Amino acid sequence: MSRFILKRVGFAFITLFAVLTIVFFIVRILPGDPAMVILGDQASQQAIESLRARLGLDVPLPVQYVDFMRGVFVGDWGTSLISGRPVITEILKVLPATIELTLAALVLGAAVGIPLGVWSAIRRNTVPDYLIRLASLLGLSFPAFVSAVLLLFAFAIELRWFPVISSGRGETLGARLNDLALPAINLGLIMAAYITRVSRSAMLEVLGQDYVRTAKAKGIAFGQIIRRHCLRNTMIPVVTVVGLYLGILIGNSVLTEIVFNRPGLGRLIVGALNQRDYPMLQGMMVIYTLMVVVVNLATDLTYGLIDPRIKYS
Amino acid sequence: MSTPTPTTRPRAPALRLALAAVGLSTVGFGVTSAHAEQTTLNVGMASADAGKLDPHVATTTPDKGLLHWMFSGLVRIQPGKASPEFVEPDIAESWTTSDDGLVWTFSLRDDVDCHGEYGTLDAEDVVFSLERSADPEISGFAADFSAFESVEASGEHEVTITLSNPVPSLLGLLVPYHGGNIVCRDAVEALGEDFARTPIGTGPFMFEEYQPQQYVKLVAHEDYFRGAPKIKEIYYRYINSDASRDLAFQTGEIDMIYGSQDQTWVERVSELPGTTVSVMAPGEMSMISLNTSKAPLDDVLVRRAVAHAMDRDTMVAFRGPDVTLAANSVVPEGYLGYTDDVPRYEFDVEKAKALLEEAGHPDGVTLKAIHTTLPDMLSTIEAVQALLREANINLEIELVEHATFHDQIREDLSQVVHYSAARIPVADSYLTQFFHSDSIVGKPTAVTNFSHCDVADEEISAARVEPDKERQLELWAEAQRKIMDAACAVPIYQNLQLWAWKDTLDLGHEVEGSLNLSPAITEQSQFTE
After folding, report:
1. Residues 465-504, chain B: which have Cβ within 8 Å of A?
2. pLDDT at B456 over 80
3. B26 three-class SS
4. Least packed by Cβ within 10 Å: which of B39, B185, B192, B282?
């Protein structure tokens, strides 16, 4: 087990190294100049060149690359070219808000999606199944920013239950949950749509297995068959999908954060990309890569918990 | 010798129409209130986050809008106005100039306090501040101060500026807009790099707190020299999504919002009960620069054909008559030095075709424009493309992301450049940056001359140092005539700044415009409920 984890961590380092290298060069190949973004469009070419020099952007690329890599591993991720604040501080200030939102969406998605998927499979080709399938299809095809605005209309404008501006930093638990509710529902529903579909098809597959038929033949109650024999086996593909869809969740969280005006990595990365803030983009990539690597590792380890037959070597 | 006398001037007719059309009220005039209930102002700005909040570096609309309420200058433009014609004393009580316009002596107030614990402002602070603005290593506006030979403290509360040559509208440079923002020396030195995150000035509101991607909180500067502000707190909230900003305004979570430059926005928000919508100058002018150095646009006949194919009335109707003014000259209307006495190219498709035929292009021409994907600008160029097609001018649009667009047009890769900009409202700024040969893209001194236009260099340069105001205006007018005659660029329209706020907010002045692009919130501003 520990050898497995070590091996995976080793691979994670290689992945991180490759991603950072690619990001480093891609952001610099892109046309667009942070010096111009900072100085504005009235700045003369001379002023822009002078600022580029001060920002260290005129240093040869290989030198910048070595500096950057050294920085990443010693924890010095540089300062934002635009705001002048340290990249790591900027990221750490908003990271908890993103993690909070993603986890809440994940929990909500699983809490809604798994029971619905299982129920839909059990009631295959009946009205509830059709309705659930239709609803999950809607959830998949609805852009996050549209559903976000609809939620705002319903719950913030008409009912006035929640604020439009979600600060993401309420002081009490109640205030935090109040801020988190609409964004988490928005993302959670999308996640639930994915999970419902996967749970349904996984459950259908399990229900067709010989051991389920045998259990039925033995006269075991159907509810017990589902709980004891089917659910665990259904979970393996669900966990895989949850891990994979985390990337999609992060993508949708960008739009959700913007519409709900919630702080988070999504808003940070969009700003950094528009402004060609190289150190910030690089820092964000480190974080995103780490998140994906960690989630993948967690997914793999979860298999073992769900199914004891899976051994790590 | 001159002394400042604030003057008034009737609003430009077209602007007045635009303002009337959206029912601009004279905000709170005559409203008296014995007791102001609300003292916290929530403002919604279209931005993901704050940028550098150093007033000598900040250039974006969101950053300038915020700094507007925090800084003073030696002089300022009357709150509610945008033109340097309305200059009035700020930190300087009075000033004199030498006959040749080269030596300016400013007498400062002695009761100007810096925010926080940084003491009283004196002449040394002003000298430090102006020298900082002129330092290209620090300031983004150093070029504006290139004619400053020296800035000296000639007394504890007196500053003397000596120029190497007269500067058009020197006072315009000293308003708290770009380099004219006065900073406190002790604060800049004590805070170092942190100054860009915790700016310290002498204006009515001072920095209190910054929450990333959320807001900057300002609090009243109780020792402000014009008196303690009635509003005690301002939350300047960064809400990038237009829809969310509007919804938050609708629910009352914010009291004042930055609008989208869009007719439907004005119509929608005007209908909200208890709302004041303001259409403010200066506008951003949309203009099509035609690259005169490359065929077929090196032929003036082809450029004039493009000008004749542009239907300004259609473009104004397209963008929305309440938020747009037709642009007639290559300098935006309302700028000091603007004239509409320039060669006009009336909309005439047949004439455009005839000109193309005369130029040897009977089957029309194809032009290439590299263009940004920013939605507002994109819809404009698509409308222009449709108009030009009528005259057999095929405009091929190559779309690139915004930062790439700025990069590529400066590499001279686009024959036609659609640009939208606002500048300090003096003709020199637009003429120098867009039409003086020193500013041609690709040169070390390049700014934004995409057309390679050089027909009015003489007038632009001469006007810059002309001490006689009448003669200066004539030189600027002549420059505009020459540039329009050569059809270096085709002006399309001006997009005005849009804001809305609750009727219960009394800004304390009539709002026609704001150089800093946000309505002035002064010590007089208050809520009436």
Report:
1. none
2. yes
3. coil
4. B192
